[in-house]
Amino acid sequence: MGASTLDAAVIIPAYNEQETVGRVVEAARVLNVPVVVVSDGSKDKTAEVARAAGAQVVDLSPNRGKGGAIAAGLEATDATFVLLLDADLVGLTREHLESLLLPVVRGELDMTIGVFRSGGLLTDFGNRATPHLSGQRACRREWLQAVPHLAEERWPEPAITEHLRRSGANWRYVPLLQVSQVMKEIKRGFWSGLKHRAKMYRDLVSYRARRREPSES
Questions:
Q1: Where are the domains positioned within the chain?
Q2: Keywords on this record (predicted)?
Q3: pLDDT at 124
């Protein structure tokens, strides 16, 4: 199955990622499928850089959080399959993209989740410690749209993971060799990045308490 025949789209949620989003768009375009960047209330040139790199841009205002950005990206395409990528990746190749997308397109899996390997000490460690929080995923668009509370979650990975469990989906982790991310502490400055990371982890950890079903109380 050639990449040019894929009924798929790449969705890249992005918030103030002007330094890296163009590189990710260029890497994704080798699949010859639509690339949708959702600029989630960005205050920099994320939208302009993404358009210049060849992406379709959905420009949100105000900021909705990653879940809202993904939901907006899903609304912007009618592709059967979607590949989610973070906007701050380094080292992404066609082989990485196909290793995520093709098993889902072929019907072998309902979802793939990318995990960094040999990309960098800190990003490798963080991704291996919490691989279920990875933003690199492929699945059917309709399946992802059915995730409860997707658009409401600032960090939607726990909601997606919970839907995987409840739906009985067939999935697996896929190693992404020599891929890494630009750390928040580098992008935003150490203290601002650390504050942002702490807020992210707080939202992630509180998911189950916030979304507990009445029967679980």
A1: 7-211
A2: Glycosyltransferase, Magnesium, Transferase
A3: 42
For residue 214, what pLDDT is reported?
45
SS3 of the chain: the string is CCHHHCCEEEEEEECCCCCCHHHHHHHHHHHCCCEEEEEECCCCCHHHHHHHCCCEEEEECCCCCHHHHHHHHHHCCCCCEEEECCCCEECCCHHHHHHHHHHHHCCCCCEEEEEEECCCHHHHHHHHHCHHHCCCEEEEHHHHHCCCCHHHCCCCHHHHHHHHHHHCCCEEEEEEECCEECCHHHHCCHHHHHHHHHHHHHHHHCHHHHCCCHHHC
Backbone angles phi, psi at 180, to 5 degrees: -145, 180
The fold of 7-211 is: Spore Coat Polysaccharide Biosynthesis Protein SpsA; Chain A (3.90.550)
What is the distance in angstroms between the CA of the first residue and the CA of the last residue of the chain? 48
- Those residues of the chain that have pLDDT short of 50 are 1-3, 119-126, 184, 193, 214, 217
Q: So what's the pLDDT on residue 42? A: 97
What phi and psi, each to the nearest 5 degrees, are found at residue 81?
A: -120, 150
